[in-house]
Amino acid sequence: MVAEEFPVVAAGAGVARQVLADSTALMVVSFRFAAGAQGALHNHPHVQSTYVESGRFRFHLGETSFEVGPGDSFVIPSGVTHGCDCLEAGRLIDCFTPRRDDFL
């Protein structure tokens, strides 16, 4: 499937999510954030990598917080509580392994 075949869905106030590609082993997802929007603290069994395409974000990962901007990327281990605050409107590209079936 191509990205246009996946719907854009609300994922919180000021946050939109769209699956870009998926297989049983891997999923690529776009998250668009309005300035001031939050990615609520949560955890999941999937390993996640996040790439900041645009915008600025303060991420909370376990007991640490850090700011990221365009071109930055990092990995979130399985089961670690994480979330973010959007400081400047932008887009994150997240990869999950295995795929997030709850996003389909």
UniProtKB/TrEMBL annotation:
Specify the taxonomic lineage.
Bacteria, Pseudomonadati, Pseudomonadota, Alphaproteobacteria, Rhodobacterales
* Domain Cupin type-2 span(s) in chain numbering: 31-86
Stated name of the protein: Quercetin dioxygenase-like cupin family protein
Q: Which Pfam families match?
A: Cupin_2 (PF07883)
InterPro entries for the chain: Bacilysin_H2HPP_isomerase, Cupin_2, KdgF, RmlC-like_jellyroll, RmlC_Cupin_sf
Under CDD domains, the record lists: cupin_KdgF
